[in-house]
Amino acid sequence: MANRLDVNQPGKKRRYWYLIPLLLIVWPASCAMLPLKYSAEPIEAWVVDKETNQPIEGTVVVARWILEGGLHVDQVGSLEILEAISDKQGRIYFSGWGPKWHWGAGRLTYKDPELLVFKSGYRVEALVNEASPEALGGKYWEIRKSDWNGKIVKMEKFKGDQKDYVTHLGGLDTSLGFASRGGSCAWEKIPQMIGALYGQRKQFDAAGIRGFSSIDDHLNSNENYYLSKGCHSPKAFLREHLQ
User: Which of 2, 3, 8 is nearest to 158 (CA)?
Assistant: First the structure.
């Protein structure tokens, strides 16, 4: 069964506490089997309004195949990051990829991929595969599949006020931290999401609502840092992609 994560509690995990002793034994051994070869099948899904069942155009979806490892099975990186935007029928599509060799730490588990779904005015969805004991234990499958392939994603309109929406979107900002922290250039792969959040910030600004932090702010303030890490110019990137 496919899962929805609570983006307002990004660290929350399903409580398979009884697996912890087994994970401590199996995970280090499994990581020693690197390198690993991965491929992913295409993903096609449809985004609709939960109340009306009407398709939602312009929904931005970031697909991230997350590598997990270490003693406490934390996120250690991204194997692949893709982005899509829904069309008039609400359809989103990600091409398959691979084979791709992974030589570093960690391996794919049940967040293969995690789908972050955003449309202004709606609640954010974070969709992952079933967190089965096999997946949590790091079982290796070369070909990765999304449980959300062929499914309908129902988006719920946000019911609170604008200030509450700022708080709600803080979870998405945390989930997207991989793209802008630690010297990563991953922000280059998600221009549609950065643009959508920039547009959302402009809406908050026009309403006099403060406190919303979008990725473009961080990139603008750290031009020299990202250039030193071998990334493209954030300011040039933002000029190209932000309207």
Answer: 8
Residue with tokens 């588990």: 109
Q: Classify residue 25 as exposed, middle or buried by CB count within 10 Å of its CB (0-12, 13-18, 19+).
A: exposed
Q: For 16-31, what is each residue's pLDDT tens digit?
A: 444 544 444 444 444 4
What is the residue whose two structure tokens read 């449309």? 119
| pLDDT above 80: residue 34 | no
Q: Give the chain's end-to-end CA distance (angstroms, integer).
A: 39
Strands (E), the chain: 3-5, 36-40, 43-49, 60-69, 74-85, 91-94, 97-102, 107-108, 114-118, 125-128, 143-144, 152-155
Whole-prediction pTM: 0.87
Residue 39 per-residue DSSP state: E
Mean local confidence (pLDDT), 148-161: 97
In this prediction, residue 10 has a pLDDT band, given cuts at 50, 70 and 90, of very low
Q: d(Cα 174, Cα 29) in Å, to the nearest integer?
A: 30
Within 8 A by CB and 6+ apart from 105, the residues are 31, 34, 67, 69, 70, 76, 77
Rg (Cα) of the chain, in Å, rounded? 18
Rounded-to-integer distance, Cα 112 and Cα 14, Å: 16
Output the DSSP codes for 47-82: EEETTT--B-TT-EEEEEEEEEETTTTEEEEEEEEE
Residues in the chain: 243
pLDDT level of residue 8 (50, 70, 90 thresholds):
low
